[in-house]
Amino acid sequence: MYYIQEVFPIGYLYETHMHTCLASACGKSTGKEHVRRYRDLGFTGIIITDHFFGGNCAVPRHLPWDEKIRLFCAGFEDAWEEGQKVGLDVFFGWEQGYGDDEYLVYGLDKQWLLDHPEIEKCSRARQLALVHEGGGAVIQAHPFRMRDYMTYIRLGLSFADGAEVANAGNRSVHDTYAYHYAQEFGLVMTAGSDNHDSSKIQSQDDLFGVSLDAPLTSIQDYVQLIRSRGPIHLHVPDDRFSADPNTSEQLHSFWIDSYEHLIPTRRLWINPFSPTDPE
Ligand SMILES: [Zn+2]
Ligand SMILES: [Zn+2]
To answer: How far is ligand 1, taken at its centre, from the CA of residue 55, in Å?
Structure first.
């Protein structure tokens, strides 16, 4: 592992993207199971980002709002309790889905959700405004992920404070595209594992995350780092952003404009002649 911006001893390591089986339909580990694994692997903290109601959430949508939020927060609360016992900082966030584009939301809490039912079905622009109003930050998750179940790459450039350029669940070529995209547009970059199952994690090298110069005293410290462009070092394999562009792959990438319509980017995203070395 090495750090993109500078090489120096390991700082305070955080997971920024993970799911529990209590609130994410695709989750495999409980909050407690995740916590024990990350504590054993030397992480300082984790942020639980279960799939919100626009994504693969385990909570039935027809329930009253208060009940939905109570169930949605159960994965985080399970992790937080265990974290208190074993000494791992556990923070709250979520991942909202808009079809093919997804967003990680940090810095708000259960009470904020209880008070803001309009967050469930709002537009991307309204989401960003509401989250900012509440003192949080939004990161577009795995912007170049392409899977069988997805139709298009959709870049929400104006609907987030930054981009998750490395996601352990992606192919590295897709993270390479994301890295070039974030570099070109000067975006804040983060990394995360999108970990659904900690029983499969053997070592720290199986996990992505961010390394910080100082420990987070609250999730607000992380929001502050994102919004003020403070130092966020990427904990990723050192060859993560040097995948060869697969020229046979058709990249159907779209901007999302201010009306939230799709506009083709007509871009390849990787210039094969430009150095891909992150330095
Ligand atoms: Zn999932
Ligand atoms: Zn996820």
So the answer is: 8
